[in-house]
Design a protein that fits this description.
The chain contains 7 helices and 9 strands, in the order ββααααααββαβββββ. It is an alpha+beta fold.
Amino acid sequence: MRFFGGAPRQRVLWNGTEEELADFRRLRRNGAQAKRRAIARAERLVGACHENPDGEQDAVRAIGDASLLLDSGERPHLVVPLLKAAPRSVFWRGLLQVWSSFDATWAITDLLDECFDEHGYGIDFLEREAKDFLDALPDPLMLYRGCQSGRERGIAWTTDRTVADKFAHGTRWSIPDGRIATITVPKLQVVAVITDRGESEVLLRSRMLPQNFNCEIPGQVSPTRPQRGHQPLPSGRVDLCPRSGSHHRADQERR
């Protein structure tokens, strides 16, 4: 039996032969090299867009290709900084393409706020289904956010209370201290909407959230005391595809 991996909490017991272990390690090295090449290609094409707008479609496609090679523990950390440096149209087309594959966006809340400050709103880049969803929303708009306690002031919200309840309980693992936050905001504060996962998701600037909002424990009728101020970002991490099992469970939740 052999142990392999990085930190002790990530070590996996290997029961195969030495030859099989060598094959596995080679595949993992090749995968890491493929990631680096894909990210480098996307960076190159994104940079070229500033000089050649005709290459924007290639850049968006390259961002999607690179995302496919990344797991849920690294995709937002690598893709969002790449998008931040892109022209506005590439930023929004790329972000809307991969957003639903992101996990744990809480860890990059400040970075996303910076991106929204720089690239503005994504309404002009929404697909027809998303535009119809946005057009049908009332003004002002009541939104919900299900998350771990202390992470209420995030980017991702929903118009569907049942979706928030699901995230407050945990989508893949149970959250022992889940909360459901409720706010009412003017519709003009909506940065973008996401409909491709059926979660009625609404993106907001966290810096523009109301100072006071209701926050309750799932299943309770009476809300807890209103939350105030911006909670500090913990050191966290931030899938178009695979789900990684090598990170802390609390950090795996998408919101």
